[in-house]
Amino acid sequence: MKRKEVAPKHKVLLKALGKRIKKLRTDKNIGYIQMSKEIGLSKNAYNDIELANAYCNFSSLLLIADYHGVSVSILLKDL
Predict the structure, then answer these.
(1) Which of 9, 10, 11, 64 is surrounded by the fewest CB atoms within 10 Å?
(2) What's the pTM?
(3) Distance CA 13, CA 5 (A)
(4) Rounded CA separation 25/3 (Å)
């Protein structure tokens, strides 16, 4: 299944979200491949979230937030 291309009007928001998620990961000194394995996403899917190359579904946000011990609302706050 081909992924849906990110609309330009959403790119800024998704980049900010990806940057926040990447910071949480790098603060723990975890590589993106290890992180993807630990939460059960493919490395490509996880990397696409951090790089804003794809839309992120809510279940992925839940997995990421849970891993870092934060709420989804914290991930999305002030974006």
Answers:
(1) 9
(2) 0.91
(3) 14
(4) 24
pLDDT higher than threshold 90 for residue 77 = yes
Q: How far apart are the first and last CA of the chain?
A: 29
Predicted confidence band of residue 48 (pLDDT cuts 50, 70, 90) = very high
Given a cut of 90, whether residue 1 has pLDDT beyond it is: no
Q: CA 6, CA 36: separation in Å to the nearest integer?
A: 21
State the Cα–Cα distance between residues 28 and 41, nearest whole angstrom: 18
Round to whole Å and give the CA distance between 14 and 1.
21
Q: What's the rounded Cα separation, in Å, for the pair 38 and 51? A: 19
- Tokens describing residue 31: 């590589």
